[in-house]
């Protein structure tokens, strides 16, 4: 999936539920760079943040085939990614709620009804 600009990447992230995994090649091309040197990667990271986007890994890889996860800052997806990457008891509870409990039970019941 190629993007003509980082703004187009942001639009695709938003259209994909605020999280999207893409190869660095596509991000580099959307930024308009030819290589993935350290300064280019740092500038891409700053540009993404300026568009309200975060990414994982935190340090962008120098390989154009490496996959990165881009997500909209402030979204539920960003909160979940933060909970996974930053251990704390509060985050443990957020992960439990997202992966178990009532939400998981309701989803399982829906699957049973649909399938």
Write a brief caption for the model.
The protein is α+β, with helices and mostly antiparallel strands and 115 residues long. It has helices at 6-15, 24-31, 38-50, 76-85, 89-99, 101-114; strands spanning 19-23, 53-56, 67-72.
Would you write up a description of this structure?
By secondary structure, the chain is an alpha+beta fold. It has two domains: 1-72, no CATH class; 74-115, no CATH class. The chain has helices spanning 6-15, 24-31, 38-50, 76-85, 89-99, 101-114, and strands at 19-23, 53-56, 67-72. Strands 1-3-2 form a three-stranded antiparallel β-sheet. The longest helix has 14 residues, at 101-114. It starts with 5 loop residues before the first helix and ends with a helix.
Helical region count? 6
Low-confidence parts? none
The biggest sheet amounts to: 3 strands, antiparallel
Tell me the helix content.
55-70%
Strand line-up in the sheet with most strands: 1-3-2
Shape: elongated
Number-wise, the strands total 3
Q: Rg to the nearest angstrom?
A: 17 Å
Strand content: 5-15%
How far apart, in Å, are the first and last alpha carbons? 32 Å
Name the average pLDDT.
90
- How many structural domains can be distinguished in the coordinates? 2
Q: What is the string of helix and strand elements?
A: HEHHEEHHH
Topology:
Elements: H1 6-15, E1 19-23, H2 24-31, H3 38-50, E2 53-56, E3 67-72, H4 76-85, H5 89-99, H6 101-114
Helix pairs in contact: 4-5, 5-6
């Amino acid at each position: 999936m190629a993007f003509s600009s980082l703004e187009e990447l942001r639009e695709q992230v938003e259209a994909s539920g605020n999280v999207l995994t893409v190869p660095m090649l596509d991000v580099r091309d959307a930024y308009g760079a030819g290589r993935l040197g350290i300064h280019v990667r740092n500038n891409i990271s700053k540009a993404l943040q300026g568009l309200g986007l975060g990414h994982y890994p935190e340090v962008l890889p120098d390989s154009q085939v490496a996959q990165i996860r881009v997500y909209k800052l402030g979204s539920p997806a960003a909160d979940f990614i933060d909970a996974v990457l930053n251990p704390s008891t509060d985050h443990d509870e957020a992960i439990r709620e997202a992966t178990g409990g009532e939400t998981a039970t309701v989803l399982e019941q829906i699957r049973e009804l649909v399938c």
